[in-house]
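anyone seen this seq b4? input:
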Amino acid sequence: MTEAAIVKRICAQNGSISYDALISMFGLFDEALDSVVARSESFTVAFVNGQKKVIARSKVRLCRVQNCPGCANLHLCKLFLFGSCRFDRGRRGCRFSHDLLSGQNALVLTAHGLNTLDLKELCILLMQSDYSLLPAVCHSYNNGTGEYGRCPDAENCKRLHICEKYLRGFCDCTRAHDFYEPHPLKTLQDRGVTAELMAVMKDLYANIEVLKRHSKAPAAGGPNPRRGPNAQNRRPSSGFNAGRGQAAQKPPQTNTGSTYMLLREPFPPLNKKLYI
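predicted toks r here
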């Protein structure tokens, strides 16, 4: 079992998979899977609605510059990746590459262990790793009341009008819970998302929500960067601060009642645990 094999299997399952299912697929013990996941930045382990899941992620991006010598990213047409480039079969060729096996792309994919992925698996991985490929969820829509919440752009908004709570789990509010509703559907189609990809949008956006929360989660402990690395070794000063010395040395109280989010280290790396 290799890291590349795990990434490929997860991408074939729309970018995430339950921890138990992954163990069953490869016939592993927990310790064996942990040894691979723990040392890799290609995975995030998270508890989603009480279920332990493994989510695939990559640092690979599509290059936004057409001619970029020495680039470490893929030189590939985004719409070809999505399967919606209108120049793919036409007489007039696309000015962006449609070749995954070109020298540049082959080097990048091999360097990141992604050279065994097919086009759809690569598309799944990049869409949930590179947040510029899909429209962001409109936070203004998710605040306030009414058809468009507080979104000033209303029907013309280029962001996705979908319920954020729905992406994180069950929700029965009046906001959109269906990617096929008129506004979400049009917004995604305008970005080149095909009918085939529409079927996996819920999974992808749910994965993106988890990955974003993981990257923003604070450390569960450690020194305060604003106080400097030697703050704990300093003696209390005289006067007013001296009277606070003993109080300052008291250990902080730990709140054990909340399990909404728990991480041991800040991002990166990407392979730590998160509770949602």
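The CA atoms of residues 113 and 273 lie 23 Å apart. The chain is about 30% helix and 5% strand. kinda curious what u guys think
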